[in-house]
Amino acid sequence: MTITDRARRLRTWLGELFRFGTVGLVAYVVDIGLMNLLRFGPGELLGHKPLTAKVVSVSVAVLVAWLGNRHWTFAHKRGPRTAAARSRELVQFVAVNLVGMAIGVGCLAVSHYLLGLTSPLADNISANGVGLVLGTAFRYLAYRYWVFTGDDAAAPPPPAPPVAAPSSGPAASEPR
Q1: Which of 48, 27, 41 is nearest to 128 (CA)?
Q2: DSSP summary character for residue 156
Q3: What number of CA atoms fall less than 13 Å from residue 40's CA on the CB side?
Q4: How many CB atoms neighbour CB 98 within 10 A?
Q5: Average confidence score pLDDT of the chain
Q6: What is the rounded radius of gyration, in angstroms, for the C-alpha atoms of the chain?
Q7: For residue 61, which of 127, 142, 147, 13 has the smallest C-alpha distance?
Q8: What is the pTM of this model?
Q9: CA 19, CA 67: separation in Å to the nearest integer?
Q10: Rounded Cα–Cα distance for residues 84 and 79 (Å)
Q11: CA dihedral 94, 40, 126, 66 (to 10 degrees)
Q12: Fewer CB within a 10 Å sphere, N or C end of the chain?
């Protein structure tokens, strides 16, 4: 592999990571905003149910992430455009996000119920800080290596290397 190939692969990976981070940031804002709205907003709909609030907020954020990752971050790695392939991808995406959600909710449960840290700040640090970082790392790796693993069939082929035109001189017809 040449240095140019490595540089191109690095640029491609960094672009993918940037898109993943951007989609994740939007989903993060949805997750944190909705969790806090449900817990501490008008009427405190789920004020005494931090785990339920987190499950609802993560579920909505997953829908945002699905759209962004499917159609932007990993669009070049999606599988064949068949109903079966889309269904498989969706089931795997949901499974990955259930594990990612369990990581975040687990961090919140340990902090809130085992450690007794029940303030709004403690809930946010455990669920939206520690849990989110661990869950995000898991999600990226799972999306990249398990969910979006298409064969790039929909991507245009790379350009062919230039072919030199045959010369018309006598040396061109001689065997080499």
Answers
A1: 27
A2: P
A3: 9
A4: 13
A5: 82
A6: 24
A7: 127
A8: 0.62
A9: 12
A10: 10
A11: 20
A12: C
What is the rounded CA–CA span in Å between residue 64 and residue 154?
A: 23
Cβ-contact 28, 35 below 8 angstroms? no
Question: What is the DSSP secondary structure assignment for residue 115, as one 8-state letter?
Answer: S
DSSP 49-99: -HHHHHHHHHHHHHHHHHHHIIIIITGGG---SSHHHHHHHHHHHHHHHHH
Q: What is the tens place of the pLDDT at every residue in 4-63?
A: 888 998 998 899 999 999 998 999 899 999 999 999 988 888 888 888 998 899 889 888
What residue type is assigned to position 132 of the chain? L
| 126, 129, 132, 133: CA torsion to nearest 10 | -120
Q: Of the candidates 68, 40, 70, which has an alpha carbon nearest to the alpha carbon of residue 54?
A: 40
**Better pLDDT: 171 or 21:** 21
- Report which of residues 3 and 26 the model is more confident about: 26
- Report in angstroms the alpha-carbon separations of 61 from 75, 98, 113: 19, 12, 24
